[in-house]
């Protein structure tokens, strides 16, 4: 069931979220590199592809479309109505929900849960991160594999600085600048798009999580880290893909 969660989209301003069709132009997915890495990680730890997968912060649902080739039961969640409207139009065969990852409760479990594209980094406060961990746990069964794409705090210099859109309707270039706010463990990104119609300014803060901190949050919610993975150089070069296994509450 959809709920009105748009009020949670507060300090984020992003041209690509207002025009989801542009999201997949700017982030072209490098031939589904993230989804293919996820398949490898899932196979490493389950010995096969899972029967079910929930993608939290799924955006346009592109990764889900790829993963659905081998996983029959998939669902996606995002708190932005515009992203889910677009995902439903483009991928009508997939189940999507407009929900906030802090409060999401679908009332069922999945064999795999993914959270790609720094979706978790949009949650800033410690207590909210705990709520998201509780969401992961509440949709897990023993041995569920969780894969998080997080910003490696030691590789923020590898985050993309320039962006391009070149489609018949629109040509635009953007430059991003990043600023650390160490006391809050936030990384602020200001991005300015230049288009024929003028400038557009984007703004977002990413919460940085150090590895031991992430391990602590996960452990408190009965997940144990299985390993950290990277994509080949140049692809999502600031990303760590952290895989964890749900032990179950009694462990
Ligand atoms: C950079 S996009 C990544 C989308 C997709 N996972 C990908 O990798 O292409 C981050 C997504 O996280 C979503 N998001 C951020 N905070 C959220 C929250 N509290 N609950 C649900 N989704 C959230 C945003 O709406 C956005 O679609």
List the helices and strands and how they pair.
Elements: H1 15-18, H2 20-26, H3 33-46, E1 52-56, H4 62-67, E2 73-78, H5 81-90, E3 95-98, E4 110-115, H6 126-138, E5 140-151, E6 162-167, E7 170-181, E8 186-195, E9 198-207, H7 211-220, E10 223-229, E11 239-246
Parallel strand pairs: 1-2, 1-4, 2-3, 4-5
Antiparallel strand pairs: 5-11, 6-7, 7-8, 8-9, 10-11
Bound molecules: S-adenosylmethionine.
Structure description:
- The chain has helices spanning 15-18, 20-26, 33-46, 62-67, 81-90, 126-138, 211-220; strands at 52-56, 73-78, 95-98, 110-115, 140-151, 162-167, 170-181, 186-195, 198-207, 223-229, 239-246.
- The chain has 2 domains: 6-155 and 209-246, Vaccinia Virus protein VP39 (Rossmann fold), CATH 3.40.50; 158-204.
- It is of the alpha/beta class and 251 residues long.
- The structure holds S-adenosylmethionine.
- S-adenosylmethionine (SAM) binds at residues 8, 57-59, 78-80, 83, 100-102, 116-119, 122-123.
- Keywords: Methyltransferase, Transferase.
- This is SAM-dependent methyltransferase.
- One of its GO terms (molecular function) is methyltransferase activity.
- Pfam families: Methyltransf_25 (PF13649).
């Amino acid at each position: 069931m959809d709920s009105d969660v748009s009020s949670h989209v507060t300090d984020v301003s992003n041209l690509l979220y207002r025009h989801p069709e542009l999201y997949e132009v700017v982030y072209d997915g490098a031939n589904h590199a993230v989804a293919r890495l996820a398949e490898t990680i899932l196979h490493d730890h389950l010995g096969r592809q899972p029967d079910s997968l929930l993608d939290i912060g799924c955006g346009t649902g592109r990764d889900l479309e790829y993963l659905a080739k081998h996983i029959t039961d998939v669902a996606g969640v995002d708190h932005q109505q515009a992203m889910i409207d677009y995902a439903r139009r483009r991928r009508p065969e997939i189940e999507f929900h407009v929900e906030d990852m802090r409060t999401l409760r679908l009332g069922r479990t999945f064999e795999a849960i993914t959270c790609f594209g720094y979706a978790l980094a949009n949650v800033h406060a410690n207590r909210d991160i705990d709520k998201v961990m509780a969401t992961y746990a509440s949709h897990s069964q023993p041995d569920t594999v969780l894969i998080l794409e997080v910003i490696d705090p030691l590789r923020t210099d590898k985050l993309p600085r320039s962006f391009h859109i070149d489609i018949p309707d629109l040509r635009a270039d953007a430059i991003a600048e990043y600023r650390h706010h160490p006391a809050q463990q936030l990384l602020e990104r200001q991005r300015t798009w230049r288009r024929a119609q003028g400038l557009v300014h984007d703004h977002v803060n990413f919460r940085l999580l150090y590895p031991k901190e992430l391990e602590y949050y996960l452990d408190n919610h009965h997940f144990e880290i299985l390993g950290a993975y990277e994509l080949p150089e140049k692809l999502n070069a600031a990303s760590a893909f952290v895989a964890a296994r749900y032990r179950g509450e009694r462990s």
